[in-house]
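Bug: token stream looks shifted between consecutive jobs. Job 1:
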Amino acid sequence: MGHHAVLLRTQYRCHPAISAIANDLFYEGNLIDGISERDRSPLLDWLPTLCFYNVNGTEQIGRDNSFHNLAEAAFTLKLIQSLIASGIEASAIGVITLYKSQMNQLCNLFSAGHSDYPNIKAVQVSTVDAFQGAEKEVIVLSCVRTRQFGFIDSERRTNVALTRGKRHLLIVGNVACLKKNRLWGNVIQHCEGRANGLQHSSQYEAQLNHLLKCHLEKKAKEQEERSSQKEKSGDHFCPPKGMK
């Protein structure tokens, strides 16, 4: 007996601004939101629901014939650190890329920079294929490519990558390259239609640097105060009778 595929028309995961991209590109406008914008309010006042961060990096190919982009990886690290410094739980954040080499670059950067942000280990970093079926409050998507499209042109992979985030979808990529692609030209157009939906990393990094500087200064001050309190409590320690 044959079975007909049934399209699930109502989605309950993504903020409507995020689901609108998939609805436009893959579902011919037939997708219905089962949740409202209020149900998916932002985790931070300064963090856009949907944003494309333009990074002028360069794609490189690794020994495994997979692609990576060091500039995108560095910006992604700084963005994730800023989210954690602002109070978002690391376990609520996911980083997706279409390339295994980029995933490895990101994992190496996160491991190297975890001393100031130990919770960063809880951020899930995966290829899009490994992330299928998963969801996070915040998704950061690293596109990698700057010359050609490759996997980024796959409708199935792109659909999965764009629909994992519940409250925030933050895309890191190269506008000049991706705008030439039919799929990604539409994605960028959706981002441009949102307030602060298209940011240039060279300008945005100044804001992130300031946020991280304040966070580290606050941590250093708190550590200094704890050390001071510990020294004071030691000065007033009186041993019980009989203790030498």
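Job 2, same session, no restart:
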Amino acid sequence: MEDDNYFMKRGFNFIYTLSGDTVFSTMTVYDYLWNTRPPFLNQARKFVPGMVPSDNVGVLKTMYEDHEDHVNVRHGKRYGDDQFFMMNTYEYEPTVPGFSLARGDCFASIQNSSEGATYPQNLDEQSVLIYWRKTLCRAVPLYYERRVQKGALTGYKYVLPDDSYDRLPDSDTDCYKGQYGLLENGMTDTSKCSH
């Protein structure tokens, strides 16, 4: 809000004061995870409901509120080992939930990614895994780092690069840059897929 105009800041302060909310609050772990309802959000919903899609921002409530997922994946011999269980669509869209090509949103693709429970077969040291989790709100590449020995089994360790959440050079293709201004490297706007 630092760069917002005077009226936006005054409106925010008015709603915050009217709500009686405080910066710090005491709550149970359960409430923090499943039932966080700041008075400010309740008050803001009355004035600008389009900007406040939910008054419960419990961490796990937000991440897992939709318990039914519709995932279309590739399976069968015709796709071979390298496309085993790769995703085509999630909730009938080729994009991260909350992004819709029909609405003209950015193409935040989940295509050719794995949801993390299964991966392509016969991986090698050149394989790049595209990993998508609803809680991350984006598909990210995992790159081979090293071999790992566990008893008689040899496995490969794949890691997320440190710059995975940095801004893209072309901000028009950066679906997570922020709706109200460019976020810093390492930050991701998850508002579309969280609500």
